[in-house]
Amino acid sequence: MSIKIVVFGAAGGTGRNIVEQGLSRGYPVTAFIHKKRGLEGLAGLSTVTGDVLNRDDVEKAVANQDAVISALGAGKVSFYGTKNIVDAMKKAGVRRLIVESAYGAGDSAKELPVLNRLIVRDLLLRSQFRAKDLMESYVEKSDLEWTIVRPPRLTDGPRRGNYRAGDRIRLDILSGISRADVAEFMLRQVEDIEFVRREPSVAY
Predict the structure, then answer these.
(1) CA-based angle 41:39:29, to the nearest 5?
(2) Span 26-65, pLDDT tens digits
(3) Which residue range forms the structural domain that includes residue 96?
(4) Crossing angle of helices 82-92/126-140, nearest 10°?
(5) What separation in angstroms does the CA of 50 have from each of 82, 101, 116?
(6) Over the stretch 67-117, which tens digit does the pLDDT of each residue have?
(7) Which among 69, 65, 91, 84 is positioned nearest to 4, based on CA atoms?
(8) Number of folded domains that form the chain
(9) Is the dihedral of CA 120, 122, 128, 131 positive or negative?
(10) What is the CATH number for 131?
(11) pTM of structure
């Protein structure tokens, strides 16, 4: 039986790629979205319209799924939306969760070059990374079978399929990866147990 997947943040850059690639692999995919704009014409796609900050909407989307993939954006949606997802999964008995975060969040902050950490993470993008930190902590404290994916700079380039992934891969200020390849890696985690309860970075 095919694994049923619900995708949060489905209309975003990474999320759209997850949806399209998931469908092409034959997964029954449900997209959780505010509006259907941008996802029309995708054969086989199911949708649930709602607000990720509304617990009832999230519970409706998670029910009867086998795995959850979250590509939510930054800000309060990242933390509060993910909190609702985790809580809904516990209630529904859904175990597998793959979450997109960012390189520099959580304990990977100490791996950033000093100027990146002080200027970008702790000053320019302080609130965004704070939300990512809180999100990661909430996921890690759950008993779910989670994987937190930490890409560096995201691009809209094509899917290459030849990227590096690991807990402590070497990255620098120029490191990046396309959203299409992040999506591919996240989809691989649906059935791959290598990175369960780990926080891999993924980059070229």
Answers:
(1) 90
(2) 999 999 998 766 787 889 999 999 999 999 999 999 999 9
(3) 5-203
(4) 10
(5) 14, 22, 36
(6) 999 999 888 899 999 999 999 999 999 999 999 998 887 687 677 655 566
(7) 65
(8) 1
(9) positive
(10) 3.40.50.720
(11) 0.92
